[in-house]
Amino acid sequence: MTTVIPGLDPVRGDVLELHVDTMITHVSRRPREAGESLPFLAPGFIDLQVNGFAGIDVNGPDVSAERIAEMSVALAGIGVTTWVPTIVTAPEESICHALRCIAEARAASPVLAHAIPFAHVEGPFLSAEDGPRGVHDLEQIRPLDADEVTRWQAAGPVGILTVSPHTVDAPGQIARIVSGGVQVAIGHTHASTPRITAAVDAGASLSTHLGNGIFPHLARHPNPIWTQLAEDRLTCGLIADGHHLPAETLEVMVRAKGPDRAFLVSDATELAGREPGLYRTAVGGEVELTVDGRLSFVGTEMLAGAASEVAAGLRFVLRSTSLSLPDALALVTTTPGRVLGRDTTLRAGAVADLVTLTADGTIQQVWQHGVPIERP
């Protein structure tokens, strides 16, 4: 059954009319009529870093294929039709268990396989220094090891790996990992400028939540933030929850990179959407969620992931920076889509993952594979 979905093109301002079943079968345009009120039409949002959501933790002891599928449904309800489950520093068997659950969930249906392209493993090859390590388990931080990554790949689909390239052997290890089909991101690092450059030369292509996972006090220059901002071969993820990066820092970073080399991530945990209070989590232990949505390790100023989602990040960008709606949308559609190797253009033949939204980023309706999704 074909449905026609109309909406405004955020770039051109005319009216798009998409004919969809599970795919977009036809696209037509027409001028906007005087007084015509329609929402904007955009591809479904993409989040490349989701640790948990709706009370479900990718890294929790009770993770399963069924729980991963539940997370996917919940995320679609807020407009995130494609997401990357993120596994953090843990024993090898725990990482492999989570990867097996993700692989099983993807095998359950074509919709899930498209919604979950692969996993992002953040750690365990990170800086052991206080500050850059964040709340990653110090006891499980270990040297960069391409052989371990190969063993993970036998368990499930690893697409992105975050590492700290601070060691002499990092470039060789990174080159091996990249040759195995995994994109390497730099993050949670105290690496020097030469070490970061060597990592990029070896094939590292991403920066994980740039500006976070780093010492709270840095040399004016050089430092790892400047190096990664200046490196055009790196596309950077940014957390736009209002806590990880102040609005002016976020704006400057996007200006430096441009919307084509920056994307928003939620870094969401299972506490996203929960009431303020003290919680015990599988990652970070005792954490506090404040009324304003800040999630931190109890007794410290260190952030323990995020309690927001990428759609809220889009709204923060639109109200707190000078970015236009088309450029802001690129941060949650086009650019992360490119990281996945996907063309997110609204064109005939594309999967019908869609959202309609207002000028301030408020989502009105979501479709996943052409099916309307119930909003929370």
UniProtKB/TrEMBL annotation:
Family matches, as InterPro entries: Amidohydro-rel (IPR006680), GlcNAc_6-P_deAcase (IPR003764), Metal-dep_hydrolase_composite (IPR011059), Metal_Hydrolase (IPR032466)
Protein name: Amidohydrolase family protein
SUPFAM superfamilies associated with the record: Metallo-dependent hydrolases (SSF51556)
Record-stated family: Belongs to the metallo-dependent hydrolases superfamily. NagA family.
Keyword Metal-binding among record annotations: yes
UniProt xrefs under Gene3D superfamilies: Metal-dependent hydrolases, Urease, subunit C, domain 1
Domain Amidohydrolase-related: 41-370
Organism field: Brachybacterium halotolerans
Keywords: Carbohydrate metabolism, Hydrolase, Metal-binding
